[in-house]
Amino acid sequence: MSANTYEALNAKVGRRSFLKMSAVAAAFGVTNSFASTNATRAATQEEIKNPFPGSKLIKTICTACSVGCGVIAEVQNGVWVRQEVAQDHPVSLGGHCCKGADMIDMVRSEVRLKHPMVKQNGKWKRISWDEAMKGIASKLENLRQTSGPDSTMFLGSAKFGTEQAYYFRKLAAMFGTNNIDHQARI
């Protein structure tokens, strides 16, 4: 055993760490006592079998990146309520990464942007997709005219498939710059 390992094993616990660990232990003890009371009831066999009656299972793919892992989304009344991995999917073979496992929370998030927005007079205002595209295009063209095409940087995404990455690179070249990279390198 090295000296560093020996010192780590014999490290002293400070007052603050001791109080934190004591608080966690007390909280665990209190919440554990609730588990042994009748505060909750056992789920019925029907609830275990189907907690969302009338829901539909929809095979889809994860959109976190361009791999396209299989997801089976359970939808009830138009709302994504639960998901499972697609065991028979040829790409993911029944697995997910942490982003894919969290896809349902991303889709259902209350802070998810669902429409183009622009800030005017200090307040966010919803605009149409045409307005958003025209606004971005005019700002890019103005920047290219005033500062040159190399004043911009095009950043690709892990969501791009091979063909999308090809077209994105062509867009940067058409704009007049070689300043292109992938967002994972930032």
How would you characterize the largest beta sheet?
3 strands, antiparallel
Helix content: 40-55%
Query: Tally of extended strands?
Result: 7
Structural class: alpha+beta
- Within the largest sheet, what's the order of strands? 1-2-3
Distance between the termini: 40 Å
Structural shape? extended
Query: Number of DSSP helices?
Result: 7
Task: Tell me, rounded to a whole number, the average pLDDT.
Answer: 84
**SSE order, as H and E?**
HHHEEEHHEEHEHE
| Cα gyration radius (Å) | 26 Å
Number of domains: 3
Strand content: 15-25%
Unreliable runs: none
Structure description:
There is one protein chain. This protein is α+β, with helices and mostly antiparallel strands. It folds into 3 domains: 3-35; 53-108, Single Sheet (N-terminal domain of TfIIb); 117-185, no CATH class. It is built from 7 helices and 7 strands. The protein has a 3-stranded antiparallel sheet. A two-stranded antiparallel ribbon has the order 4-5. Helix 7 links the parallel strand 6 (154-156) and strand 7. The radius of gyration is 26 Å and the shape is extended.
Name some characteristics of this structure.
186 residues; alpha+beta; N-terminal domain of TfIIb; 3 domains; three-stranded antiparallel β-sheet; two-stranded antiparallel ribbon; 7 helices; 7 strands
Provide a brief overview of the structure.
The chain is α+β, with helices and mostly antiparallel strands. The chain has three domains: 3-35; 53-108, Single Sheet (N-terminal domain of TfIIb); 117-185, no CATH class.
